[in-house]
Amino acid sequence: MSVMRITGMFSGMDIDQIVTDLMKIERTKVDRLYQQRQELQWQKELYREIINKIRVFRDTYFDALKPDTNLTSNAALKRMLVTASHPDIVTVTATADALPGESTFRVIQSATAAQAKAAGVTAGSEEGNRLSLSDTLEEISGKLASGTFSFDENDEITAVINGVELTFKKSDTLRSVLSKINNSQAGVTAFYSEFSDTFTVTSHRTGAESTITAEGAFWAALCFEPAPDGTIGEAGRDARFVIDGFEGSRPDNTFAIDGKTYTIKKTINPEDNSPEISLRISPDTESVYKVIESFVRDYNELIDYINGKLNEEHFRDFPPLTDEQKKEMSEREIELWEEKAKSGLLRRDSALTSLLEDLRRAMYDAVDGMNLTRFGIDTSSNWRDRGKLVLKNGGADLKAALAANPDQVAEFFGKRSSISYSATLSREERAQRYAESGLASRLSDILNDYIRTTRDQNGNKGLLLEKAGIQGDITEFQNSYDRRINELNKQINRMNELLLSRENAYYLQFAAMETALQRLYAQSAWLAGFFQPQAQ
Question: What whole-number distance in Å separates Cα of residue 378 and Cα of residue 392?
Fold first, then answer.
């Protein structure tokens, strides 16, 4: 709240400027508090940047929802490559459970869906007399070859398909009728061809149990003739095939057998006598190599970023700027100053240092007597790299290990403990889980300990979240940095109240001086009156 003061009337002094200069000295204390608060805010933001980078890394390589890059899963570490002699007929993919080797596959017939087709829907043979998608049911009724639609007193007609009852209005267009059928729960797709004058209904399901049932005069008017059991058209059929001399069937054209997923891509009938297809299954070392190579690269980028913050130079002569200081500087000057002021705020941070030490230890520890070096991965010999991983011989050693011992590589990275990760595990359970786990689970556990959103037996979340929090979690507002910032805010408020009292005290002192001067000048004027010469 601004206060209007009239000062210096008798002294002639610029009291406002004098008080402002006196308060500058007093305000240095609160300015230091503002600077401390700004540093804490910057540190919190830097922490959250690191937390987000850790989360991205963890979710990429240790998340079950991303099987292609999840190093705790065989889906990423034991990929199999399948080559087929006729990929135009069938494509095959294999999981880690598939055995390498050669096999044969022949399609006897592909699976089909139930389909009902009515031809000659309209009465006239001329193409111009046929139905249009923009025709209403009332207009269509007069063109049909098998009679007309029977609308009720509400100008509506009911059709039942696969047990689903649908109601259409006389004013509905053919386009809206088809859309209503196709978007219903009937599980069919209806289509009308103006060119061939055919109305087709196809089931979404394939296989011998796929049928279409229809009830009501609506379908009869469209030239469909239900069988005694209510079905229309032809039922679907199962896919039939021969694998290594053994015949089998499935209701779909995509099916999994013995760790291999087959997809029949063409419509094949028994009389087609399709050829025998040769399949060759082998470890997909190139794909696994790319996953591990990507993991090494991203791991190096993560620890390089954190190490950069831990070893960043801190410029003590560049504290955060006050508002008064910013008024005297250009935007570019402010930007350069704050760049220096933000530098080194996480230098030698204990929590981040501990995180890197834990990760480095996990990289060195053996898994069932195996180390990373066995698979052509080592830590850099340059101390400036601070624990970065290196693919020896440009990755050739890793490729050789994957080709020679793919199961060992998968075991080293993906081995799982009988104990699941939990924030409430005892010290003994954590030690057992670590000993039983592969490298991926160990790294995942370490990162979770620092950024998990679940609480341990002491009620604490991940260490970094407890310090700085993360958006979308309760720690966003309940963390160590925010508690310290809130405490500083209280100190700043108290200090501002004291400064206001001090400023008022200065003005009162100067006001007393002005009052004293006023009295002095009045007395001087009174005394001077006695010495004035009297007029004759």
Answer: 7
Sign of CA dihedral 388, 381, 361, 349: negative
Q: In what order do the strands lie in the sheet with 254-257?
A: 246-250, 239-243, 101-109, 277-283, 80-84, 90-94, 260-264, 254-257
What is the SS3 assignment for 204? strand
Q: Which helix (H) or strand (E) holds 205?
A: strand 198-206
Place of tokens 């100067």: 510
pLDDT 10s digits, 23-32: 677 778 888 8
Q: Which residues make Cβ contacts (< 8 Å) with residue 54, sequence separation at least 6?
A: 302, 447, 450, 451, 464
Question: Minimal CA–CA distance to 236: which of 96, 115, 57, 372?
Answer: 115
221 pLDDT exceeds 90? yes
Distant-in-sequence, close-in-space partners of 295: CB < 8 Å, separation ≥ 6: 61, 69, 71
Counting DSSP H helices and E strands in the chain, the numbers are 15, 16
* pLDDT tens digits for range 420-469: 999 999 999 999 999 999 999 999 999 999 999 999 999 999 999 999 99
Could you identify the residue written with the tokens 């500083």? 488
Residue 350, burial from CB neighbour count under 10 angstroms (0-12, 13-18, 19+): exposed
How far, in Å, CA of 401 to CA of 342, rounded? 45
Q: How many residues does the chain have?
A: 536
What is the value of pTM for the model shown? 0.76
| Spatial distance between the Cα atoms of 74 and 68, rounded to a whole number of angstroms | 9
Residue 279 CA to residue 173 CA, distance in Å, equals 51
Which residue is associated with the tokens 């292609």? Answer: 68
Question: Could you give the CA distance from residue 197 to residue 135 in angstroms, rounded to a whole number?
Answer: 14
Burial (Cβ within 10 Å: 0-12, 13-18, ≥19) of residue 530: exposed
The residue-averaged pLDDT of 487-501 equals 85
Find the helix or strand (DSSP H, E) in which 101 lies.
strand 101-109
